[in-house]
Structure formats: structure tokens, C-alpha cells
Amino acid sequence: MKLMFWFKKGLSQFVMPVPFILICLLFALFIWRFQAKKLKSFGQFSLLLGISSLMLLSNSFISANLANSLESQYPVNELPLTQINDDACYVMVLGSGHRENDEISAVQQLSSTALTRLSEGLRQLRLADNQCTLVVSGWSGGLTPTPHAFIMKQAAIELGVTEQSIVTFPEALDTIEEAQSMKTLVGKTPFILVTSATHMPRSMMIFTANKLSPVAAPTNFLSSPGYWWRFSAENLFISQRSIHEYVGMLWIKIKGFITNV
């Protein structure tokens, strides 16, 4: 399973903006360095493609529109799950990385994205008068000894959630495995799903495809209006996050098509 996970991650890098731009520029440099005349037109095209991609994707207008088309699909959730479901109440927060350091608190070890997601998860708990169970997920990523789910759990405890009110999924590698883990816990019972607004459309596709009943609670909105002439690394980052989601959704649709053939 992990082999397929890493293969998928590695393959997806070739269509991500930064690696794609680097490949284009390196190919153009290779053509120029070795004076490969037969490939000169390819080298010129590669150089033009790399530079134009960098300019477009680092532009505030382009990056904002790429992100907004994802983030506008689900509004911020203000309805307590206890008004929807009289049964068990769960709030699931999808993981998003941390840097492990025993000298600082678990809250401070979380990535900015993970902290934003956890904060929204705790807000959803408060909307339900803390009657819900918090579910956190994520493995170690192969880089740290402690699974991300455990760091999220400790951070939630530091922020006032009782240990008995937290469920962890420390083995889940990605959103697909998070959905599968959640299915064993709740079945078809509705639950709150918290993740980044750009990631929410793909997450809802995956969870509903697994016959689950998530209620979207997006957070960590990235899209914001900016001057059309502004270029920055932040805009490039936003574009990359958005394209990652588009590619992920396309892959889900292709897999579904192949399965149904």
C-alpha cells in the first residue's frame, strides 16, 4: 500500500507548478549547453513554457481565481451537528503535517495548515456545546517518529479537549484511507468534516464515494483579491495547492471511470 502511495506522490510531482517549471527550464538549459540544434525549437518552446508558467501562476489574479473556484463550493459551517443528528456526534479534522520537537508544545509543532484545521475543529465542537467526539488523523509521513494524529491529539488536549473525547487514526496515509477509517467508526451517520477550503471538494468526493455522510466545514481559505500586476512566491504556492487538488479530483474521476468500464 505504501509503495503505491509513494508512486502516486512521485508521479503527481511532474504536473505540479514548481517541478514542472524547473523541468522546462532545465530542458532548455540542456539544449543550450550541448548545442543540440535538432532540438533547438523544443528548447525554445520549453523555455517559453517555463517562464510563462512562472509568470501566470505567481500572479495574484490567476492564483486567487484558481483557489476561489474550489473554496467557493462549500460555505463555512455554522450549524451544530447536534441539530442534524440525534445520534453520536463526531467532528473529523484531516491532518496536515507537523515538525517534531519535544522542547515545544504540541500546538507549536503543528504546521500552520494543521493548526488552522484544528482550530476550526474546536470551533465546531463548541457549536455543539462540546458534545461531539473529535477525530484526528495522519501518519508520521516517514519523516518523524510520532504519527501526526498523536501530535494533533496532544495539541487538542492542550487547547482544552478531554482525552476521552478524542479518537485517532494514526495509520491513515491519505484522504482515501482517512475516509475508510472513518467509515469503520461512523458508518452512514452524519459527521462534521474539517479540512482546508481548497481540499474540501476533493475530500467530499472521496468521503461520499465511500458511502459516508460528511457535513463540510471548510477552513484555511487562501483566495483573496489582489492587484492583477502583483507577482509573488505566495501566489505560486496558492496556485500549486489549487492545481494539486484539480489533479487529485481528475485522478479520482479517471479511477472511477476505469472501475466502471
Structural class: alpha/beta
Distance from first to last alpha carbon: 23 Å
Q: Radius of gyration, rounded?
A: 21 Å
Fraction of helical residues: 40-55%
Low-confidence stretches: 257-261
Strand neighbour order, sheet with most strands: 3-2-1-4-5
Largest sheet: 5 strands, parallel
Would you count the extended β strands for me? Answer: 5
Count of DSSP helices? 10
Question: What is the structure about, briefly put?
Answer:
The protein is of the alpha/beta class and 261 residues long.
What is the fold's blueprint, element by element?
Blueprint: H1 2-12, H2 17-33, H3 40-57, H4 60-71, E1 90-93, H5 106-109, H6 112-127, E2 133-137, H7 148-158, E3 166-169, H8 175-186, E4 191-196, H9 200-209, E5 214-219, H10 233-260
Parallel strand pairs: 1-2, 1-4, 2-3, 4-5
Helix pairs in contact: 2-3, 4-10, 9-10
Pick out its properties:
53% helix; 10 helices; elongated; single chain; five-stranded parallel beta sheet; 261 residues; alpha/beta; disordered C terminus
Describe this structure in words.
- The protein is an alpha/beta fold and 261 residues long.
- The protein is built from ten helices and five strands.
- Helix 2 packs antiparallel against helix 3, helix 4 packs across helix 10 and helix 9 (200-209) runs parallel beside helix 10 (233-260).
- The radius of gyration is 21 Å and the shape is elongated.
